[in-house]
């Protein structure tokens, strides 16, 4: 058994950890204490003599040494900001994020001899670092527990209950969950949860989403990192029902696809700046009963096109994927034109980003250095293409965001025309790298993702 406690200073990790370890009859490992043992001096002295970077290096060594440990592990406040630490802590363990309001944390740690990590007054430093670390905390955690109004013994009791498989759902909620899983055709998931109440669930939300390769990728990554997670499909006609089922499961994350990327946002508690600007969320992280929306699609477009900064670009389509593409291209200082079947749809998207617009019939290959296809045309089993080889100019970069099949009719036409081609699998790979980090706190490389997709 491996139980990991993470969170900011003053949230009770050490106190809760000692009680929990005692009740479970297992060792308690305090990473800060182990760092001090390794350095032969207290942490304030480490900071004074060698600085924070040296402390973090020692912390990384200590966390790595606990990769296969069994017991309760209490971590330093900034440990999970390093994805390598998260990967080590997550392996065959369950991670609990302990939280408390900034004012409570300030009261608890005031008078400590720990050096500040900023030049700010302590109360302001707490708020600043909490905001800066929030994404890392949420990603690294399996379960979030608020400790501000609970004693360490109460928090330890909550964790013990979860370890023993006690459900936080009422009998009526459990019946509703099981009924919805049956309606979704997820009887296998229902049985997995019954056999293993500690199983964490993730999935793709869409209609349709049977074509998605996300279940293959995520389940292989979960196995690779030793995580007790399962990734499934939530295919249903409306986003609200999917979100309701998500709230009844031990669900950590959702990948969101057609047609819910915009609709899902009204069900979320917080939405990040990129998803807000794009008007679509393709990633949902859930912790502590709250849902956080993100958009990683734009990075899936931006990264493969970084070499074409400042180019003239045409985006075909005006939906959620097109909005992410326009946002990415604008971040690369490209001159963007949006073309769609209806000029009004193109205009609506283009005006949000101060771009040119028009109808698909206005496409002229000579006017574009980069062409991004952001409609479902060409997605299996559709064999159509919006453009033919003679519509394109040699040397143009053509990026088709459709990734099933890997070689779409448009990609074949672009190759015939002598264009540089970027298949939709590249968008999928790069957005998945960021999505996996947001949901799990673990950094993966594009190479690992490609390997897992084979």
TrEMBL record:
The gene is aroE. Residues 204-284 form the Shikimate dehydrogenase substrate binding N-terminal domain. Belongs to the shikimate dehydrogenase family. PANTHER family: BIFUNCTIONAL 3-DEHYDROQUINATE DEHYDRATASE_SHIKIMATE DEHYDROGENASE, CHLOROPLASTIC, SHIKIMATE DEHYDROGENASE. Homodimer. Its EC number is 1.1.1.25. The active site is at 261 (proton acceptor). NADP(+) binds at residues 273, 317-321, 401, 424. Pathway: Metabolic intermediate biosynthesis; chorismate biosynthesis; chorismate from D-erythrose 4-phosphate and phosphoenolpyruvate: step 4/7. It comes from the Archaea. It catalyses: shikimate + NADP(+) = 3-dehydroshikimate + NADPH + H(+). GO terms for molecular function: shikimate 3-dehydrogenase (NADP+) activity. InterPro entries: Aminoacid_DH-like_N_sf (IPR046346), NAD(P)-bd_dom_sf (IPR036291), P-loop_NTPase (IPR027417), SDH_C (IPR041121), Shikimate/glucono_kinase (IPR031322), Shikimate_DH (IPR011342), Shikimate_DH-bd_N (IPR013708), Shikimate_DH_fam (IPR022893). Involved in the biosynthesis of the chorismate, which leads to the biosynthesis of aromatic amino acids. Catalyzes the reversible NADPH linked reduction of 3-dehydroshikimate (DHSA) to yield shikimate (SA). It comes from Methanoculleus nereidis. This is Shikimate dehydrogenase (NADP(+)). Residues 309-375 form the Quinate/shikimate 5-dehydrogenase/glutamyl-tRNA reductase domain.
